[in-house]
Amino acid sequence: MSSNDLSSPVQYIKGVGPQRARLLARLGIKTVRDALFYLPYRYEDRSSIKKIVHLRPEGLHTVTGKVLKADVITPNPKRQKFKIFEVVVSDGSGILKAKWFNQTYLKKLFSTGQQVVLYGMVKYNYRGTGFEIINPEYEILDENENEEANPSASGIHTGRIVPIYRSTEGLSQRQLRNIIYSVVGSSAIHVSDPMPLEIIKPYNLPDLQESLSNIHFPSASSASGGLEDLNRGTSPYHQRLAFDELFTLQIGLAVIKKGEVLEKGIAFSPDERLINRLLDKLPFKLTGAQEKVFRDILKDMRSPVPMNRLIQGDVGSGKTVVALMSMLAAVECGYQAALMAPTEILAEQHYINIHRLVEDLGLKIHLLTGSKRNKEIEVIASGDADIVIGTHALIQEGVSFKKLGLIVIDEQHRFGVMQRAILRKKGINPDTLIMTATPIPRTLALTLYGDLDYSVIDELPPNRSPIITKLFSEKNKNHIYTLIEEETKKGRQVYVVYPLIEESEKTDLRSAITGAEGLQKIFPHLRAGLIHGRMKPVEREDVMKEFKNGNIHILVSTTVIEVGVDVPNATLMVIIHAERFGLAQLHQLRGRVGRGSNQSYCILLNYGGSEDSRKRLEVMVETTDGFRIAEEDLNIRGPGEFFGTRQSGMPDLKVANLLRDAKILEMARKEAFSLIERDSSLAGYPQIRKSIEDLWGKRLELFKTA
Fold first, then answer.
1. What is the pLDDT of residue 638?
2. Thinking of the domain 468-623, which architecture would CATH place it in?
3. What is the mean pLDDT of the chain?
């Protein structure tokens, strides 16, 4: 194998072969390049060598000495299969026994007189008279030519800062480290650096070859920044790789944005008659933030360039009304508008709310979901539907619009940019408006929505008191019943949310059905209603109407009420098994109360759970600020899990961390957008163009809607 061919199969690296290649493939390592970019997930400092006489028990230590004895022993004659390989080592100051359990093959590697380095957990022996080191990492400092004690790999497992990799069964940490050491030594020098000096130099970032070598095997001088920087991923070498990854991501977004600016869109010229009629009907006045955001949208819609705008707004800030006004602007100009929601329940809720608001404006609104399709498709294609509300069904084949002018996407992070692009293709460069109630820190928004302009509705309607949130355990149940009684006596209403519809034998979670029956018995003088996702849409709508009209006092529900439900008279929410919900979901659920002028409460009933779940619940008690909650959620779960795999249009980040590397993201974005302004086709930067293709694949083509 040529050492400079980074696309060569990993199988041909010295010491790998077909069997280990199969194990490496489980880790995603198939080529030499994959091995080079398979980074350690942590580091251990094994550089400080202790004299045996100075050792202390229950600590990780590195020692060096001469082998006095190396034997396999059977400590218990009745357990012949259990064997210990034992090495006795001396450094002149004392004697130390090293023990490995059931690893008798090591007898072939160690022999009397060798100089060795050991690293591991030191303990007193069972008599308490001396020290032993259990299952240590080892280095044999002699001339043996074998795979595990190769002099070329001497000093990579001990006596230095040592990389620790995520491995797989059948491939030891030691074997994997040897393989990567071999790859770094032979191939890092052949990695070409795609970044021009003009971009890297102002930020004092090291070159790519130096970064790869020092990320895997930090030299004594490079590790001087400290083990902490390496373990946090904030060493200059980690920062360089993070910059490359974020730059390539941002340049992809810059290409998309540049392409959209060059496209010809619809220049709407609404007279705002329908919008004014809607505003006259609303039982409230728009907030200043709603008005400002709507003016941003109208300005975009009047421009001949396709609009791509994200509206961020916390729970209850009134995004849906702003989106509806935008849809009316499109309809006034003779175009159709479509709203895509992530679930049938949310699509139905939008349909119910919007239908009520505009039914007497003479408009035709249609709902398109997986279960409500065939008749609607013809109506939409004929142009007889002014506004279409639906789920993923909107982007399926066979669904066409006569004159689609505006698309609104709710909770964008549940879709992904590719689905957004498919929906845009249903029209000729329609305007796009995206809504999210998931507050996203600015750095993350730049990554997830880097090709969008965005507005924030940062003002809640007036006369709303902050919701008081309390954390209770199961033993506080009677206190919760008292709260329900007190609120209903004042003429107010209550939500009780469960994670499940029915209990199963496999789980001890409380279910909504059992809960509704129990609450009806406890409060026979009140009426308890039940709503969940398995009910027919018409049944759900009937229950919600009854609740909204005040005929149901306690609404027992699953998370179907997470979004879109607005009952100002509901002032108490009890969330059962709150530890089972994510932070963003808890925040959304809590947002169903506190929508009127009365003081509202949210009770989180905790039945135990992990440390992470406890942290989530404490954050909920401390703050009602959606942005703070989102930050904490990201800190607890990390961006990958926060957005899950649903953000399918975005390439995966392997090195960069969007929270930790916020400053690097800003730098990378600035440089990427600046470069696309100077050279939109990247004709002068073929290596950067290749990096984009490697990271984005065919995704960029899919985004193009012309």
1. 64
2. 3-Layer(aba) Sandwich (3.40)
3. 84
